[in-house]
Amino acid sequence: MKRRQAIRQIAVVSSGLALLPSCNFQSSTAYKSYKHLPLKNKQYQLIDALQAAILPPENMPADIPESPLDYMLTKINDCYSMDDIQKYIAGLNDFQQYISNTFNKPFKKLNIEQKTQALNSISTDEKLPKSVKSFVQTNKKLTVEYFTQSEAYQVNHFGFEFMPSRYAGCVQI
Prior knowledge:
There is one protein chain. By secondary structure, this protein is mainly α. The N and C termini lie far apart (97 Å). The mean pLDDT is 83. The protein has a domain of 93 residues.
């Protein structure tokens, strides 16, 4: 009787071990899923690396609850039309292709000088497709918008105070 249980357990464990290499433990659960924006993990990582190149994370205030990636992709998912989303995804694919053809490695593995060179060449090169330029411009615009609309930037840079401002109860007139 115990022999049968042992053989059954060995069969279960060996089939589990055979299936283990096909499991993807870095599924898309690491990133939010967006209804209109079907992206893969590598594309999320590319966009995140591009945002870090545009606005380094060292310059970001630490108390902002939402990441720039979440802000940007939520804005694209919720506010852009389906045509604009398709153009964005096409620009993302063309950008990946351009970087891999130019530098022979992914954008994430480039050093700071190469990233700066790539972004400068994209803004000045007229031979590139419009989709690549549009993709990079959209990322720049939304990254800067994320930073300039943060509470820390508004308070520290502009001296913003939320309405109705300060209350001065007993003031001599």
